[in-house]
Amino acid sequence: MSKTLKSSSESGSSWLNSGPILRILEMVQDLIIISLCIGLFSFMVMQLREMVLSLLPPLDFQRVTSDILFLLILVELFRLLIIYLQEHRVSIGVAVEVSIVSVLREIIVRGVLETPWTQTLATCAFLLVLTLLLVARVWLPPTFDGIDPEQQISQRHRNRIAQENTEREVNLSKPEQNGEIFTSIEQQPYFPSRHET
């Protein structure tokens, strides 16, 4: 019974680990990210238009500042999507930077004096944690040196699968000694005769 469970789990994971299915899924995921990039870019253009219109008199400084910071957030999100398309990973640094700018934008839009002190204290604690995460990211060698540990594990898995496939091909290409017809004397196996023993 355990053999049937093993064989069913192996056959279930073998179709998932096949190259064409994974490539199709990655391609669909890339298409989703590309559509997000196009949508975000068009939204950035609309937001830029709104920002230019807000610069006309009468000038509302708080609204202009809010629009500029919101546009910077959109640019950072766009950069995050581009990094994901190139490296297939989410950049921690860019995500933390987007979070910091978003929090600062909300503080500027609402005004520090109009915000309750508990909310200001919670915002300061959140900014402190984000800053510590941004600083601690420097000491994490996998992301700071550009080495992606997930990509290394995936590469090891691909190498192991490729090695198993080549071993399987070599085993299939080896002729069996029993059913083979030998064309030369050197290829024939040596069996000592009764007289030699």
Q: Topology, please?
A:
Blueprint (H helix, E strand, L loop, with lengths): L1 H15 L2 H36 L6 H27 L4 H19 L6 H20 L4 H4 L4 H25 L24
Helix pairs in contact: 2-3, 3-4, 4-5
Mean pLDDT: 76
Give the fraction of residues assigned to helices: over 70%
Q: How many helices does DSSP assign?
A: 7
Give the strand content: under 5%
Secondary structure class reads: mainly alpha
**Most strands sheet:** none
Q: Could you state the order of secondary-structure elements as H and E?
A: HHHHHHH
Rounded to an integer in angstroms, the radius of gyration calculated over CA atoms is: 31 Å
Number of strands: 0
Essential attributes:
197 residues, mainly alpha, elongated
Give an overview of the whole structure.
The protein is an all-alpha fold. Helices cover 74% and strands 0% of the residues. The protein is built from seven helices and no strands. Helix 2 (19-54) runs antiparallel to helix 3 (61-87) and helix 4 (92-110) runs antiparallel to helix 5 (117-136). It is elongated, with a radius of gyration of 31 Å. The model has no long low-confidence stretch (mean pLDDT 76).
Summarize the structure.
The protein has 197 residues and is an all-alpha fold.
